[in-house]
UniProtKB/TrEMBL annotation:
Keyword Oxidoreductase belongs to the record: yes
Record function comment: Prolyl 3-hydroxylase that catalyzes 3-hydroxylation of 'Pro-62' of small ribosomal subunit uS12 (RPS23), thereby regulating protein translation termination efficiency. Involved in stress granule formation.
Protein name: Prolyl 3-hydroxylase OGFOD1
GO CC terms, sorted: cytoplasm; nucleus
Quaternary structure annotation from Swiss-Prot or TrEMBL: Monomer.
Gene Ontology process terms (BP): regulation of translational termination
UniProt keyword terms in alphabetical order: Cytoplasm, Dioxygenase, Iron, Metal-binding, Nucleus, Oxidoreductase, Vitamin C
UniProt subcellular location: Cytoplasm; Nucleus
Record region (Disordered): 335-364
Cited Pfam families: 2OG-FeII_Oxy_4 (PF13661), Ofd1_CTDD (PF10637)
Stretches with biased composition (Polar residues): 354-364
């Protein structure tokens, strides 16, 4: 927020109630903004009498009022007139820009576990953001601070470098820019309400540099492992041919399924305990306007965890997933064309003795009931190598993923796999679930909750996006024995047709 002239800057800081700081981006704090306690208290009462609507998506969870530009209550009307009248004119002079007389203001209530995650406020026409706090005595331990982020060389948020604690009748202003990344930290107090008025003064937007484009995660080819790995790791129920057919029918009806008790119990316990007890190397993933969780280094996997990873990357597992879903995730899996050819051939041979079709894929059981796909001739064109992208993730209080402007343009047809670990008795209210939504729509299509040893499969098209909901403070208070929960884990894979 660069003042136009030195004299204007001194006016900007003429009282001890004002504090201008340019780190990590220009912002101004004005204490005792409204003169007269009675006006402020009456304003608070009018605001609390408004109708509030719960707002919740990937980025936030809080309660918000309707737009206040047409409210008739006397104190709301008086503040609105002052903000967008004389104060707007003064602020425009300080900035050296013409601010428009657009009224953009609403009221927000943040209570226990409410949060607004990292974002920059940039939207066409927004020039200066403001927040007026009307809160009870507030401490940093109550949460709800306004956190300001530093940025890296790509103008992406890096870390919180300043936290502003809300206080009664305090106004905070900051210039909306490509680096104005901030968040409202989760409210941790169970009995205080963080009440605020907020909005934007509109004017010419600052020039934005080209948006940074993240490189895609590298895709890994399948590992040449046979069905022996499946026999060693999986619940025998899921190796039964007839049960696989039932799974496929259910999956084709809804494009998603959860397969409970997927791994053998002793294998699942071995992996879970190894993750809790072994010194695995974890790396925090960012930037915070996109994601916040930890990923394990493949080189630091304990032996049993590495073996489970091999299972999920194996050729046999690709084929098994094809049997579960009907998707052609491996070139040996039957395609729609193969099925049509086989049906045509069966029609031609109707009435004759049945037998192997000879040159088309066919499903057979081995002596242990595993469904194998056999092909007696090579494909007509060189097959592409089956690929997937996988992560072993660790989640804790405060972690999340966010949707991003560029996600829709990069969306592909894909099969998502989640295998959670160390999450017994996980509650819906903790967050941490994976939410699927249609592009440019708020309504959730599906929510997948962490469930011990339950393999979740979800097929998404190019119009479907996903995020992991912020894990809130309630999750850290769930006792396990004599301690509190610190982390949950999951294998997260994406397989491509």
């Amino acid at each position: 927020m660069a003042p136009k002239e030195k004299s204007q800057k001194s006016m900007f800081l003429e009282t001890s109630n004002e504090n201008l700081d340019c780190h990590p981006f220009p912002h101004l704090l004005i204490r005792n903004f409204i003169q007269g306690d009675s006006f402020t208290e009456n304003l608070q009462r009018e605001l609390l009498d408004l109708n509030f609507h719960e707002k919740s998506n990937d980025l936030y969870k809080f309660n918000q009022s309707d737009d206040l530009k047409k409210r008739k209550e006397p104190h709301i009307t008086g503040l609105r007139a002052a903000l967008f009248g004389l104060f707007r004119s003064w602020l425009g002079e300080v900035l050296g820009v013409e601010l428009e007389p657009i009224v953009d203001v609403s009221c927000a209530k943040y209570q226990y576990t409410d949060v607004l995650l990292c974002h920059d406020d940039e939207l066409e026409g927004r020039r200066v953001a403001f927040i007026l706090y009307l809160v009870p005595p507030w401490e940093s331990s109550d949460g709800g601070t306004l956190d300001l982020f530093s940025t890296d060389d790509h103008f992406q948020p890096h870390s919180v470098v300043k936290s502003l604690v809300p206080s009664w009748n305090t106004l905070i202003l900051f210039e909306v820019s490509p680096i104005s990344f901030h968040q409202v930290a989760e409210v941790l107090s169970e009995d205080k309400c963080r009440l605020s008025l907020s909005g934007w003064f509109h004017g010419p937007s600052l020039e934005r540099p080209p948006r940074h484009i993240e490189p895609p995660l590298p895709r890994s080819p399948h590992l040449p492992r046979d069905e022996t790995l499946l026999l060693e790791w999986l619940n025998p129920l899921y190796l039964d041919v007839d049960y696989q057919s039932q799974v496929q029918q259910e999956f084709e009806d809804s494009s998603e399924i959860q397969l409970k008790n997927f791994l053998k119990e002793e294998k699942f316990k071995e992996v879970s305990e190894a993750l809790r007890l072994t010194d695995v190397q974890w790396t925090k993933q960012g930037p915070p306007n996109r994601r916040c969780y930890e990923v394990a280094s493949l080189e630091s996997f304990p032996q049993c965890v590495s073996a489970c990873w091999e299972l999920l990357c194996s050729e046999a597992f690709f084929l098994l997933l094809s049997n579960f879903t009907g998707l052609r995730l491996h070139y040996l899996s039957p395609s729609d064309e193969d099925e049509e050819e086989e049906k045509d051939q069966e029609d031609e041979e109707e009435g004759e003795a049945t037998g192997s079709s000879g040159d088309t894929p066919s499903a057979n059981k081995n002596n242990k009931g595993v469904l194998l796909v056999c092909v007696c001739t090579l494909p007509k064109k060189k097959p592409s190598t089956p690929v997937c992208v996988g992560e072993l993730r660790r989640w804790a209080h405060g972690d999340y993923t966010l949707l991003h402007d560029g996600d829709a343009s990069k969306a592909e047809y894909a099969l998502d796999l989640l295998l959670p670990l160390s999450c017994p008795d996980w509650q819906t209210e903790f967050g941490g679930f994976t939410s699927y939504i249609a592009n440019e729509e708020d309504e959730e299509l599906l929510m997948v909750y962490p469930e011990e040893n339950s393999l979740a499969l979800v097929y998404r098209d190019k119009e479907t996006l996903k995020f992991v909901k912020h894990i809130n403070h309630r999750s850290s208070t769930l006792p396990i024995g004599d301690s509190c929960r610190r982390a949950v884990y999951d294998f997260s894979f994406v397989y491509y047709e």
